[in-house]
Amino acid sequence: MPKLNIDALEPDMVLAEDLKTVEGRMLLPRGAMLTEAHIRTCRVWGIAEVNIQGDEDENDDYPTSLDELDPEVLEVCKIMAAQRYVLNPSSHPAIKEMAKLYVLRQSRDLDAEQARWMLTASPHDDTVDIFQPPPTDEAGMDPISVVEQEMELASLPNIFFQISESLKNPRSSAAYVAEVISKDVALSAKLLKMVNSPFYGFSSKIDTLSRAVTIVGTNQLTNLALGVSVISAFDNVPEEFFSLKEFWLHSVTCGIVARLLAGRAGLQGDEKFFVAGLLHDIGRLVMLRNHPIASTEVLRQAKVGRRGLVDMERSVWGCSHSEIGGRLLKAWRLPAFLEVLVHFHHDPMEASMVSEAAVVHVADFITHGLGIGSSGASLVPELNTNAWRTLGLDTKDLFDIARQAERQANDVMAAFFPEG
Questions:
Q1: 75 and 179: one domain?
Q2: How many domains does the chain have?
Q3: Are the C-beta atoms of 312 and 284 separated by less than 8 Å?
Q4: 3-state secondary structure of 52
Q5: Are residues 70 and 19 in the same domain?
Q6: What is the pLDDT of residue 337?
């Protein structure tokens, strides 16, 4: 069943599945025939794509079956998948499906020679001792001290705190929020570009912030503004293991997947989930900026020794980037929702909001599983199967989620990094 962009919909097309808002509100049942009024309703609710009955989109370059691949390319990509998913049990249905999607994604535009080169470009050495003392005296990090140091050395733009205060004020009007955000010209331009992208799928151009706030929603756009303003604060971290562009691509994709998962799980607050996914690894940037030697040593040991990065952090530092990130958001006085989801995205079942934390945990797993962007981990983090079960997801959902996320990530990255 092809998933068509809202602009490609035409009257008399038939829905291949129930049409719901991202909050889970039913609009039309499966099998309904679309009318002009239905298409307008989709635009009003911000629905970007709709499943339509018919043949698969011929222009979609995403392979749908392993049978379509060159046998040699397939074999190499399978080896790469096995290496990448080594922390996860191959018997779980979600692991199997994600490994398949990884193979399909990695195989695109590859010939046999390129595939062999990719395999040899990732050597590893399992003899590295995970318990070997690191060559630095920075072992045993106190997350509170790390955050205090970050607060002393780094400064967020003033607009961040103004936006944060407006989000907490229940009396903030759309006009007031638009006025606050408009004080930062670069931020305003990025938000307008994003709102006008297929990420939202509105039919007509939105050319003012006040209209954007009115259409998208005050809280939704304010949350987006907070997330976007944080990106500009981290532009001076070491890039030995990943570039900042790769880091934000991973983070943006995680946010998009979280937004999609929340909708499928019937959880409200799609922009909040996007921002939680966007900021989920912010603690890693904090560590790289303030403790570059300790950070790069952990990243190196995890990569060369084929170890889980979070386990390596806890073994060496005594804490993880997720704990540091959560404490940082608390220090920034961001909403508790974001703090909890960032803090517990590797331990969702320990969070006070289990279902919500499970969304970001699974989104992070999917994003790593597809190999989109990089936050330093060379292996796919272990999937908490209880979190997967909590969301009530079907493995059949994963292909559509992967395809939508990759499309939307390109649009959002173009808004965040217009210079390309």
A1: no
A2: 3
A3: no
A4: strand
A5: no
A6: 92
Q: How far is CA 317 from the centre of its chain?
A: 25
126 part of a folded domain: no
* Number of residues in the chain: 420
Q: pLDDT of 274-313, one tens digit each?
A: 999 999 999 999 888 888 888 888 888 888 878 899 999 9
- The tens digit of pLDDT for each residue in 114-164 reads 877 776 765 544 444 444 444 555 556 777 787 777 766 556 777 888 888
Contact 6, 203 (CB under 8 A): yes
Beta bridge partners of 52: 15
Distance of CA 145 to the CA centre of its chain: 28
The Cα–Cα gap between 337 and 272 comes to: 8
In whole angstroms, how far apart are CA 34 and each of 14, 27, 161, 400? 6, 11, 44, 21
Q: Is the pTM of this model over 0.85?
A: no
CA–CA separation, 349 vs 355, rounded Å? Answer: 8
3-state secondary structure of 67: helix
At 20, list the tokens: 């719901």
What is the token pair recorded at 401?
Answer: 């989620």
Q: Which residue has the tokens 């020794």?
A: 305
Residues 72 and 44 in one domain: no
Cα separation, 404 vs 399, in Å, equals 9
What contacts 270, CB < 8 A, 6 or more positions away? Answer: 22, 23, 220, 259, 262, 263
Instruction: Note the pLDDT tens digit of each residue in 72-117.
Output: 888 888 988 998 999 999 899 999 999 999 999 988 877 778 877 7
Tell me, yes or no, whether 93 and 195 share the same domain.
no
Distance CA 88, CA 353 (A): 24
- 3-state SS, residue 196: coil
In angstroms, the CA 262 to CA 245 distance is: 25
* Closest listed residue to residue 281, CA positions, set 321, 231, 317: 321
